[in-house]
Amino acid sequence: MTKPLLQATGISYHYTDSNWQLTNIDIEMHTGELLGIIGPNGAGKSTLLKILAGVIPTQHGKIKLIEQNLKKMPRRQIAKIMGYLPQSISSMFDYRVEQIVAMGRFAHLGPMGFTSENDIKIINQCLEHTDTIGLKDRMFSHLSGGERQRVLLAGVLAQQPQVLLLDEPTTGLDIHHQGAFFSLLRKLANQGLAIAVVTHDLNLASQACDRLVLMHKGQKIKDDNIHAVINKETLGPVYHHSILIAQLPHSDRPMVLPQINNE
What we know:
Elements: E1 6-14, E2 21-29, E3 34-38, H1 45-53, E4 60-65, E5 68-69, H2 75-81, E6 82-85, H3 97-102, H4 117-129, H5 145-157, E7 163-167, H6 175-190, E8 194-198, H7 202-208, E9 211-216, E10 219-225, H8 226-229, H9 232-238, E11 243-247, E12 254-258
Parallel strand pairs: 3-8, 3-9, 6-7, 7-8
Antiparallel strand pairs: 1-2, 1-4, 4-5, 9-10, 11-12
Helix pairs in contact: 4-5
């Protein structure tokens, strides 16, 4: 296997006002791979992603981005290689959609900060990829939650990253745009991006991802292929044995159902 684009070893973190901690996490991201990070609430998924993105400095351990120490890399250089989309972004200012996406080009602009014809071409391509081209002249504040999420993804893609970190990107999206979103991620991974996506939707993860990292109470429980993770033996203890595993029609991928007590 080729060297990972992003490699984290021995990552640990604790919040000063809580006993909760992230404990000794190793994780790798490879070219052309869509990695799903799953687990119940409070597992540490979002905290881990923030650390991988350099938003939160790791207290223990090391992160390498294309063989370079992440801590020693300038933010502008990181932005040319890695894109990060958090769960929510609040802005004090309101911009048109096209301007929001154009902000993703900041690391590539020259000293004067002007966008070139090539920048505009890339911006429009990212709007097309995320099905937001029709929104380009709308104000960001006038969009639905799902539309905003797709616009923000377009902005991250405008960075032209090699590594993409996404935290619950389909929250607020209807079922059509959930499928379209993960189909786009699958396409981007097939084109060579290394993508890690935090999701609570085990079925989207099962259908789209190459590999899954299962987390629980700040620890990595399993890091393996879909079938090694999406099974009752592995998921049962984490989800209080309240799940059922079935087979997707016309697919070898498993699906997860909540176990309902109708008594």
